[in-house]
UniProtKB/TrEMBL annotation:
Protein name (database record): BZIP domain-containing protein
Keywords carried by this UniProt record: Coiled coil
BZIP domain mapped to chain residues: 111-125
Cell cycle as UniProt keyword: no
Organism per entry: Cerrena zonata
SUPFAM superfamilies registered for this protein in UniProt: Leucine zipper domain
Ranges of compositional bias, category Polar residues: 1-11, 44-53
Length: 171
């Protein structure tokens, strides 16, 4: 008799010919997308749940320094394209050469700071707009329920007085 701590052996693990017949065929990427979407209630829409404009990073919060373990996918270049073109023009006229100077680095840093703040404002505006749409939808649903209940009440009143109520046209 095996001990209680010894797991029972699966016969398919002992013979490879049995194991190969029980393995399902590999799935395609389209199958994976369908299975993920079938588990979700809705398709991804680019917003996160339960995030409010108040829970975002404040506009006046300090900007974090860039410290990546690997190169960032959004900023792989040391010098952004705008500054690269300026350097190319100045090199054509042989004004300066080599690495970006301190003025260029300050301008790059200022541009990144400006972009970070613009992104924060944009995220906040997007969440506020989404909240407005959700509030409007809730108001419309409430109004719809109100008018539906009123119509049912008035139909019952008409029927109680012996008036035939016409059926709504098919939609």
């Amino acid at each position: 008799m095996p001990s209680p701590n010894t797991p029972s052996l699966d016969p398919s693990s002992l013979r490879p010919e049995i194991r190969s017949s029980t393995i399902p065929p590999p799935s395609t990427p389209a199958d994976n997308v369908d299975s993920v979407l079938s588990r979700r209630k809705t398709a991804p829409n680019g917003t996160r749940k339960n995030i409010t404009p108040e829970s975002l990073v404040p506009y006046d919060a300090p900007i974090q320094p860039r410290k990546y373990v690997t190169p960032s996918s959004t900023s792989r270049k040391e010098v952004p394209a705008v500054f690269q073109r300026k350097r190319a023009r100045s090199q054509a006229f042989e004004d300066e050469e080599g690495e970006p100077g301190p003025n260029d680095l300050d301008a790059i840093e200022a541009k990144r700071r400006q972009n970070t703040l613009a992104a924060r404002r944009s995220r906040k505006r997007k969440l506020e707009y989404q909240r407005e749409l959700e509030d409007a939808l809730d108001r419309e649903k409430g109004e719809k329920e109100f008018w539906k209940a009123r119509a049912v009440t008035l139909e019952a009143l008409l029927q109680s007085h012996g008036v035939d109520v016409p059926l709504p046209p098919p939609s």
